[in-house]
Structure formats: structure tokens, C-alpha cells
Specification:
GO biological process, one term: phospholipid catabolic process
Radius of gyration: 17 Å
Order of helices and strands: HHHHHHHH
Number of domains: 1
GO molecular function: metal ion binding; phosphatidylglycerophosphatase activity
Pathway: Phospholipid metabolism; phosphatidylglycerol biosynthesis; phosphatidylglycerol from CDP-diacylglycerol: step 2/2
Strand content: under 5%
Function: Lipid phosphatase which dephosphorylates phosphatidylglycerophosphate (PGP) to phosphatidylglycerol (PG).
Membrane topology: Multi-pass membrane protein
Distance between the termini: 51 Å
Length: 196
């Protein structure tokens, strides 16, 4: 395992998204667009945050499908993420470019799994979606995921620096998503236990 920190652009500065090579195949074009979160990772500043916003926008209708379909989509996103992020990284010519946000999509969706499971966003999702508790639950999930993804406490920081390839790009966000989901459950349980 190699420290890839030096090959990453400085995310504290505005960076242009590396363009797709002109000779890219149709399949590579599809992978590239998935890698940059259907364009949500294109902004020059804070592409990870914008990518997470994109993930949340896509997740809202997916949550209405219920827990099992949302779980399956999230697992598929995590499994395919290794290949998507790895190939997008190759197309961009560097490891873990901040404009690659498929990992943020998978991590954000992992964070939302407890929300889906606990029934906050199911069956009558569109009725619940406009309710303050549901909106707060989604906002808290977003903030928690961004916190863990940016701060990178152990073992997230280790995975970010030491694991190579597409797996390295995905792993820190998967861990961040799991940690954010666990904290979300604790917060939700605490609030629920004092709401009666």
C-alpha cells in the first residue's frame, strides 16, 4: 500500500475537473459521467460537497422505493464503485481526483440506510418528506457524512492515504458512511427517547 496523498490536487484551492480524453469510448464516457456524479462533481470548489448534494437529490426518489430496494441499490453502488472510481481516475490521469464523487454518492446512501430502515422515508414517503422531522433527519445525515468525510478520523484517514486504486477511493467514503449512519442512529434514538 502506497501513500497517494502527494498525487492529489490541493482541495483547498479551486481546481478544474480534468476533461474526458477526446478518444474515450462510449463505455468510458458513461463511466466518467458516473464517476463525476452525473456532473455534480464538476464545480471547481468543494466538488465533494456538491457531489454529496447530488447524491442526496438522487437518493430522495430512491428512498421512496422502500428499504430493501434502496439497500440493494446502495450495495450495488458500493460494489461497482471500485471499477467506476478506478477507471475515472485513470481517465483523469491521477489518483482520487476530488471531482470523482461516486464514492460520495455511495457513502451518502450508506448514511441514509437507517433512515430508510426506520420507516422515516417509506410507504407514504412523499407525505413524510414535507414533514419537519423527515427534513431534519435528512439534513443531519448529510452533515454527519460530510463531517466524517472531511475530518477523516481513524480509520477513514488511514484508508484515504494507504489504500490504492478504485478501492482506495471508495473505502474511506464507505467507512465514513457507516460511521455517519451509526452516529445518526444514536442521535435519532436519543431524540426519540425524549420526545414522549
Amino acid at each position: 500500500m502506497i501513500d497517494h496523498n502527494l498525487s492529489k490536487p490541493d482541495i483547498r484551492q479551486a481546481n478544474d475537473c480534468p476533461p474526458l480524453p477526446a478518444n474515450a469510448s462510449a463505455f468510458d464516457r458513461l463511466v466518467y459521467w458516473l464517476g463525476i456524479g452525473l456532473g455534480s462533481g464538476l464545480p471547481r470548489r468543494a466538488p465533494g460537497t456538491w457531489g454529496t448534494v447530488g447524491a442526496l437529490i438522487v437518493a430522495i426518489p430512491l428512498l421512496s422505493l422502500g428499504f430493501v430496494p434502496f439497500l440493494m441499490i446502495t450495495i450495488l453502488a458500493c460494489l461497482l464503485g471500485n471499477a467506476i472510481c478506478g477507471r475515472t481516475s485513470e481517465l483523469m490521469g491521477g489518483h482520487d481526483n476530488p471531482h470523482i464523487v461516486w464514492d460520495e454518492w455511495a457513502g451518502m446512501w450508506l448514511t441514509l440506510l437507517p433512515l430508510s430502515y426506520m420507516g422515516i422515508a417509506n410507504g407514504s414517503f412523499w407525505q413524510n418528506f414535507t414533514q419537519i422531522p423527515t427534513i431534519l433527519a435528512i439534513i443531519i445525515a448529510f452533515i454527519l457524512f460530510r463531517f466524517f468525510d472531511i475530518i477523516k478520523p481513524p480509520p477513514i484517514g488511514w484508508a484515504d492515504k494507504k489504500v490504492a486504486g478504485g478501492l482506495g477511493i471508495m473505502l474511506d467514503d464507505i467507512i465514513a458512511g457507516v460511521m455517519a449512519a451509526a452516529v445518526w442512529v444514536i442521535i435519532y434514538t436519543f431524540i426519540f427517547s425524549f420526545s414522549f
